[in-house]
Every structure is written in structure tokens, then in C-alpha cells.
Amino acid sequence: MRSWIKCGQLWRVDGGLKQVATYLCKMETRVHTGIGIVLALIFGAFAAVQYNDPDPLTWIAIYGCLVVMHVWSIFKPIPLFICLFPMIAAIVGAVLLWPEEFQGLTGKMDSRPGVELARESLGLIICALGSLYLAIRSVVRVKRSRKLV
């Protein structure tokens, strides 16, 4: 006997599995909503602490873009290309910003200019990971919505 699961629905002869599938899909949606809220708050905190950076508007815009994307993903699926563009841009930026000689991540930047570049590169890698989560979530949502009924 064949059955298909689509979020909130299960078609099968016995109706007991329909309630189980509905509960699991709602729970999965709540988990990803929670993850989206937490990530939006984290990137919002990253944006908030950039006020004393040498180039604050750039970094507030970068982190703010991810806040908007994570809040958007809570309410509606984000198209995949919108998720991939910031991820690719962040990876390219991280590679280009990485210092020629790694001087660590801690300490004052006055004596070691590579420290700031390494920190900014790692910030972009974190942004790329946030965008990767959104891209994976987008693909899963599209595959789930296209399942045969």
C-alpha cells in the first residue's frame, strides 16, 4: 500500500497516521521557525556591535541583509537564487579579504593589520553559513511542495 506525506497531510487507508503526519510536520515547522528567529537575533546582534568598526555601514548592511532574509524565511519560502547570491558573495569576499599572513584573531589591530582582515573574513564565512542554511531550507520546502499527491 502506498502513502504520500505532504506537510500536514497523509493519504492512506487508515486515518490514524494522518494525525501523526500532521503533528510531525507542524513540529518540524516550529523548529525551523525557532532556528530562523535565533539566527535573525544573532545576526542582528552582529550588526548592532559594528558601530565602532572602521567601516560600520558596510558591516551593518551585510548583517542586516541576513536578518531580513531569516525573518523573511519564517513567513515565506525564499527563492533559491536569493539565498545563493549572498552566500557566493560572502565566500568570494572572505577569500579576497583573508590576509597574506595570518596573525591571529585576538589583540590590538594597530600593530597587526592582518587581524582585522582575518576577523572580517571569518564574519563573511559566518554569513555564508547563514545563507547556506536558508538555501538548504529553500530546497527542502520546494521538494516537499512538489511531491506527488
Account of the 3D structure:
The chain has 149 residues and is mainly alpha-helical. Helices cover 69% and strands 4% of the residues. A two-stranded antiparallel sheet has the order 1-2. The two termini are 14 Å apart.
What would you call the shape?
Answer: elongated
Strand order, sheet with most strands: 1-2
Low-confidence segments, given as residue ranges, are 1-5, 8-13
Q: From N to C, what is the helix and strand string?
A: EEHHHH
Structural class: mainly alpha
Q: State the helix count.
A: 4
Query: What is the CA-atom radius of gyration, in angstroms?
Result: 20 Å
Largest sheet: 2 strands, antiparallel
Ordered list of secondary-structure elements with their pairings:
Layout: E1 4-6, E2 9-11, H1 16-48, H2 56-75, H3 80-97, H4 114-145
Helix pairs in contact: 1-2, 2-4, 3-4
Features:
single chain; mainly alpha; two-stranded antiparallel sheet; disordered N terminus
How is this structure best summarized?
With 149 residues, this protein is mainly alpha-helical. The protein is built from 4 helices and 2 strands; from the N terminus they run E-E-H-H-H-H.
